[in-house]
Amino acid sequence: MILLRRITQIASILFFLTLIVLTAYPLAAERWVDFFLRLSPHLMFAVLLNAFRDLSRFALVFLPALVLLALIPVLGRFFCGWVCPLGTTLDVTDRILRRRHDFSREPLKWKPLKYYLLLAILIAAYFEANLYGWLDPLPLVTRAYMLVIFPILNFLAQLGFDGLYPVQPFRFAAAPAEDVFRTYVFPQGQQHFIGHFWLFIIFAAVLLLVFINRRFWCRFLCPLGAVAALASWSSVYRRVVSDKCTECQKCVRKCRMGAIGAGGKRDYPGECIECFTCVDVCPEGAVSFRWGWGKRKGDLDVNLARRGILAGITGALAAAPIVRLSFANPERGESYLVRPPGVLEEERFLQECIRCGECMKVCPTNGLHPSWFEAGLEGMWMPRLVSRIGYCEFNCTLCTRVCPTNAINKLTLDEKYRFVIGVAKFDTNRCIPYAEGVDCIVCEEHCPVPEKAIRLRRERVLDDNNKEKDVLIPYVVEDACIGCGICENKCPVNGQGAIRVYTIKPFLREPSKGKIGKEYIRELMPGEEVSPWKASASGDVFEGERLFDFIDGGAEIYFEYGFIRAATREYKAGKDAATVDIFEMRDPTAAFGIFSYERAADQPAIDIGSGGVMSDYQSAFWHRKYYVKVSYYGEGSAAEHLKKFAVAVAKKTPGEKFDVTMLKSLRADALTGSVILIRGPIAMRSITLLSDIDAIPFDAGALGASYRTAKSSGLLIQYNSGAEREKYLGKIRSGLANKGYTESQVKKGRSEFRKNGDRITAELAGDKCIDLSLEQISTD
Amino acid sequence: MNYTRREFLAIAGAVGAGLALPLTGCKSGFARVKEAAGRRLRTSKIKPGIFAARGGDPYRLTIDAVRAAGGMESLVRKGDKVVIKPNMAWDRKPEQAANTNPDVMRALVEMCRKAGAGEVVVFDRPCNEARQTYARSGIADAAKKAGARVPFVDERRFTEIKIPKGLMLKKWAVFSEILDADVFINVPIVKHHSLAGITVGLKNLMGCVGGDRGQWHKEHLHQRIADINTVIPADLTVVDAFRILTAHGPQGGSLSDVTEVNTIAVSTDPVAADAYGAMLFGVEARDIDHIRIANEMGQGKIDLDAAGVHEFDV
Question: Is residue A282's pLDDT more than 60?
Fold first, then answer.
């Protein structure tokens, strides 16, 4: 029997180790990798107590545990002696560490301790405190092998191979071995884990307890052992001692569990793990295992003390709040706590994660690490993504597929693409283009989101020699960012990334909302609602500088206002044709700006979007950040068709009407249709009023708006602040003086400048605007 | 299993010595900064100019384009070690046009094999996780089936080389397989690139270098690309423009950014190959700084008329 047990133990631990090796891309044994973790009835009880609202989530998870639980009353604690990888590990290390010692001493009479501990764990679980993930032997041993032992073995093996590598005859011999090793055993290469040392210490401590007793963990602490012990208290398969026993004490001394009472004839119930050592060592052949029914006579008392049970309950009542209250607010507190994709609710995750480390082992970029206090005490050893070490690979769902309790929900690739785990933000003080004015597009280049969550805009900056040059400035589009962290990982700035992924509440982005950028602007195009018109082709989209391909000449003005992309499509109905152009601008001000620039002052207004105009062959309107143009080529009544198209597009861009704030400071008598918003030098060219005067710092964000009234033409300028207005008012004054104007103050805040028949009135408007108007007056 | 103290010490000593022996080699191994010279071009009988096959499937196009240029036998000799460097940088599928088409690779490996190559090596240093990238790109599978070795980049197998003509780079580490190769074939795909403008063959050689490539992007990327091209020039550039990525490059991901151009072009002139790629992409080669700089440094012709374009339909 001993031989059979040893073979089973070896087979079991080899199976366990094989599963660990297979916990890696391409995850050939997906159904099996979490097998051992789902074997624990203790975890089953604890997790169900904690998360009892969602029992359905665990229907299949703990099926193996249920089977095991059903077997134990019949077969006894065979799991501990024959199957458990931690038990087997302890058998080996115990043997190595205490070869010559006598095991019979049990200085601590702690057998009941595991029951108190189990009680405490279960009560704490009911109060939603997760102690079970720390104390169950299966997560414990899995974590130890995956996060501690395997990396160490990999390190040593690699050291050996690296040592052989440069020496030619060795390299030749070692290369095939290394190939196998790299391909199959440690395919991820050297993994590192934050806090590896402390995990090592903890595991070592469990092993070193042998210096008190063999299988100390199993005897006194193991909560799974306690469950198994309770279930096997009156096991059907039991040790029987015949009359031949001479009470030589040999079996008592050799029993690794201290399950046999002094004398050798009586047992402690639930302690025997059926290792059959007692059968083997008995010189008289008096010990055997038999099937039997009914209550056993002569069992020793485990001495469950009322005091101990009370201590267990009190312990749980103390531990639950301590664990739960030593928390970190994941959304506000620890800004960088990013969970693996598939974790939706932090609360639930804290209940369901058993800290086994499978996800960390399988992560191909070594990005998942055990957290220590980032997620509070309770979150200790649960996974978090440390992007600077390893990012979340876009096309990868491995961690969601290995989680034994589905604390990380399984994701399909399509869901993974939309699963948002964090959001990237720039540290503009350190980001190379922002801080140094030098191109660097590494984050944008690596952003895996097809429409790009990091985009680039061209900005003009001054270089060292005060010369103007263009720099590509990256920015984050939060609507597209999934928080995968590859940007942070690849950022070439030393130390912390100049872009970092911050905590958010994870969510699965709606597929329709995921359609942004090119796909989204295409969706704005009119469809069936304009029938009988039909689109003659799917049309084109032009982004960034490709606008020049679309508008040959005259595209610069779009960039001046702030251009992102444009879509165009042709429609036909019989002989008539129409085109719809939709321009996505940087912001509503830009959309209004280009709209105002392109409209003619005398075009009749129509009430579409935030404002529109219509002529014989063209209608145009702007709304939110879109500027839309419709052109009609045909014989029929243009107005009807133009309106139909415009309304169709407007319906797809819902939202309140938008007002450009600065226009509120416009004179009451300004003709609305004549207003042109000015955001840069190109639009400014047609304004002669202030030619050659540096009156508007466009680069700093100042705006202009030209207008006409019945008698005058004017220019409203909005500065960023009152102080800036003061500064530029001075420049305007001296500039006009240089041109030969004479100034006279009419009243406070209002001056007039005259030259020949021109009169320019400058008046302060609002807190940061200047209103300039030019009037021709008779010189008589 | 009981040892006396003396026995134990003897065993420990023996084991220690055994371990120390290779470890002494280890020291010099890691310091293997052998400052090698760059690679030398193979003198080949491939015809000068650009040979572009259009229409048809990528496998066919590749075979016909190479045949038009003189056939792989004009370049590869019996027993040669051939390195074929695709663009296999991103964890994307072939139809997303972020990586070289696997059928192009299959055709090239087969042709090299047929021409008598002793060993054909295909590799890249991907930006995404290497194993997944190799698999999803379809290249590892295609190349292996055609008879190539497809190793992952081994950090120990980089050799630092001097770059005498380099302006921004004076030396840099290069994957040693290239330096050992008798024939080196560069197989880029034509893609948009947000900083480089477009990426074709010259930029593709960035996949052969070690160290922190991210640093290259910080200013002077174009000069660095041209610099590295002076030391590891390809004997043949095969431009994969079966599909090209027109926006959101170099990684792409959206099929709406992919355009089918159905062209495979072959040239011994790396600059002309890039200029041809630029033409297919619809930009002026002289507007792409690294192509212009490579031309100015004398690495090849940028003027397509001077280079000579032979286009034909399959």
Answer: yes
